[in-house]
Amino acid sequence: MPCKFLQIHSLTSFAASLLNRDDAGFAKRMPFGGAVRTRISSQCLKRHWRMYDGENALRSINAPESIRSRESFERYVVEPLVADGVSVDVARAATEKIVSKLLGSEAKKERIERKAGKKKNVEDTGPGPSDDKVRTPQVTVLGRPELDYLCQLAREAVREAGGKAERIDVVIDTKMKSEKFRKNIQALKPGSLEAGLGAALFGRMVTGDILARTDASIHVAHAITVHSQMTESDYFSAIDDLVREEGQQESGHINASELTSGLFYGYVVVDVNGLVANLGGDSQLAGDVVQKLVRMIPTVSPGAKRGSTAPYAYSHLLLVESGNAQPRTFQNAFLDAVRTNGSVIDNAYDALAEHIAELDAMYGKAQERAHSGLRTRNRFEGAMTVAELADWSRQRVVA
Predict the structure, then answer these.
(1) CB atoms within 10 A of CB 238
(2) Inter-axis angle of helices 144-160 and 88-103, nearest 10
(3) Which of 20, 117, 155, 203 fits a 20 to 30 Å CA distance from 31?
(4) Tens digits of residue pLDDT in 218-268
């Protein structure tokens, strides 16, 4: 049967790792149900899924990519213009004007400050990119088709301005007020995939009134442990090999960092109608996205300190629900922290199965369910492999 929402629940265990750090270098955490839990932020999870480049990667889908950067306009507008023989000053003048028109007051403010020389040079505080580069006030999410179109717009403006920087503003103002520009911009609205696959899945926020905002069609919760935080301070030293060869016992470096272990509950909701709409009405493409997402969630690990902790793990449980009712998390199965004496995974499975049964008894069962798991012992319905579960999920979306 077709569905409006696909809900993906997972349980994944990591040992001796530091998956997601805060600004002080400690593991991110979150109080929940009277106990502090270790946390992996949704931003961290989404970035690893976006950047994954192996089997079943989102990048393998035949769709335009989204570029997330402050320097997108420098890379995809200024640099192609310079390669065409346009002077750097003229290319940047044209690009800055387009940025200020597209992204509104903050971009205009930055452009004025740059021209007045009031913007602090990042080189004053240490190594960094030259402040001559065109950068947006914040990271922007733009599709390659959008950037290619804006590069062509700048190229035409430079040609019509005779390559003179002082005429660029007037020419671009005229072009961006034209009927042709309005028609072309309409083609960049949500559903055209011009903002790229990343924006279609995880959304984008724009501050101007020309480019369109895209609402996320895939909603990702912060993953937190089902039990209280388990943490240890890891004391370590770096040995100086040459000094040791001379018989000295000193170390080249001594420090400590935090390591944690835990069983994490993850939760993802796919707004199927929103996903299909963001993909231009292509339900087959939406099915491909979901199929790859279900394969990635249990197998693509986030993680800092990879070189020293190898934080790679596959999920113990992947449970998928298909239905039309409003989504609801199973996080509350672990509102009372799972006991860590005995088998943590069995305790978590029992708490989850009991919570699902009680929700069904209270509200009625409104979803189809299927799962893939280790040692689940018939606690959950619809057992299958991860590949079969991905195909099962795809069928619900395509329908």
Answers:
(1) 10
(2) 120
(3) 203
(4) 999 999 999 999 999 887 778 788 776 677 776 777 778 899 999 999 999
Instruction: For residue 137, count other CB atoms closer than 10 A to its CB.
Output: 17
Distance of CA 102 to the CA centre of its chain: 23
Phi and psi of 67, rounded to 5°? -110, 125
By percentage, how much of the chain surpasses pLDDT 70? Answer: 87
pTM of the model: 0.88
Distance CA 338, CA 355 (A): 13
Bridge partner list, 36: 31
Distance of alpha carbon 200 from alpha carbon 191, whole angstroms: 8
Distance (Å, whole) CA 199 – CA 201: 5
How far apart CA 284 and CA 394 sit, in angstroms, is 9
pLDDT for the residue 122: 43
Distance separating alpha carbons of residues 379 and 374, to the nearest angstrom: 11
Which residues contact residue 372 at a Cβ distance below 8 angstroms, ignoring those fewer than 6 apart?
A: 298, 317, 318, 383, 384, 385, 386, 388, 389
Among 375, 335, 303, 316, residue whose Cα is nearest residue 227:
335
Which of 2-6, 165-169, 357-361, 369-373 is predicted with the least confidence, judged by mean pLDDT? 165-169
